[in-house]
Recover the amino acids of this structure.
């Protein structure tokens, strides 16, 4: 796969993932977070296991280890996301979680013991101020402060997931890794849901429609094919494309879920999107220098 096609695939993946916030928000009105995750990822695993049975049958140790590792990490990330999403708006949750784009280079800087670029620090600062603005818009909602904290933890975990995906996807077949990842997420979510005594399945046609959209669009495509794109694209570049995720979620939140847009919330949106776009510009310059060098 060419780098250009890999980038286009990642953009499509993150758009699909952006729709998940709206579908999940609807389901959270009647189902527990872990029930949604359990049914969603178990079904997604079964669908992909049938479609890619030959790949799964030939699964090697690196693919198994990589898929299980990503499954554990993404389960933690999704738990933070879902419990946070119950307490804050979809647009707010998606924007905060996708601060992972700024956290990735900071994590890399810590691991390599180098100073982050000045523009990265600026982007991080803008994002933090943006989160502060969004937090102020949620103060009237019960538990909103805790919801903001959970989505920040989701962002921190998501950044780890992006870095780990880059590493494991280069060591084995990325589709196989993605399938194992979904299976791991489904099993872990089911165990947690059963242990908590909260497991339930959708009861209405609307619930099943939302869930099937989560399964087919957001999970089978969104989760399983991210490792495919990241096999040909660096983690820092992949993080750049997450900007389309909060854009998708925010637009759907306002137009479909009828979430209110106040001046403070709009300022928070602008600051975080500005941070993501500034970082996007920085990464394009870095890629050009690497290509010419």
């Amino acid at each position: 796969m060419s780098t250009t096609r890999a980038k286009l695939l990642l953009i499509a993946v993150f758009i699909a993932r952006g729709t998940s916030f709206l579908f999940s928000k609807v389901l959270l009105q009647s189902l527990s977070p872990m029930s949604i995750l359990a049914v969603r990822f178990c079904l997604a695993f079964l669908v992909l296991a049938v479609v890619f049975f030959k790949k799964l049958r030939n699964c090697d140790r690196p693919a198994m280890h990589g898929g299980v590792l990503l499954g554990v990490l993404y389960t933690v990330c999704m738990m933070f996301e879902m419990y946070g999403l119950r307490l804050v708006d979809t647009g707010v949750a998606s924007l905060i979680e996708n601060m992972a784009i700024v956290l990735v280079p900071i994590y890399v800087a810590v691991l390599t013991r180098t100073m982050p670029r000045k523009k990265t620090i600026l982007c991080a600062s803008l994002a933090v101020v943006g989160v502060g603005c969004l937090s102020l818009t949620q103060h009237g909602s019960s538990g909103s402060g805790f919801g903001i904290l959970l989505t920040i933890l989701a962002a921190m975990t998501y950044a780890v997931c992006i870095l780990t995906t880059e590493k494991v996807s280069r060591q084995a077949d990325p589709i196989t890794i993605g399938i194992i990842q979904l299976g791991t997420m489904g099993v872990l979510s089911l165990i947690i849901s059963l242990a908590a005594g909260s497991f339930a399945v959708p009861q209405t046609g609307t619930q099943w429609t939302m869930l099937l959209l989560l399964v087919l669009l957001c999970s089978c495509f969104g989760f399983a094919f991210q490792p495919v794109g990241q096999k040909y694209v660096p983690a820092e570049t992949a993080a750049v494309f997450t900007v389309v995720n909060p854009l998708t979620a925010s637009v759907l939140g306002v137009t479909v879920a009828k979430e209110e847009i106040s001046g403070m919330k709009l300022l928070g949106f602008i600051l975080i999107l500005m941070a993501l776009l500034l970082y996007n510009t920085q990464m394009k310059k870095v890629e050009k220098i690497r290509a010419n060098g």
The chain has a mean pLDDT of 83. Residues 263-292 form the longest helix (30 residues). The chain has 14 helices and no strands.
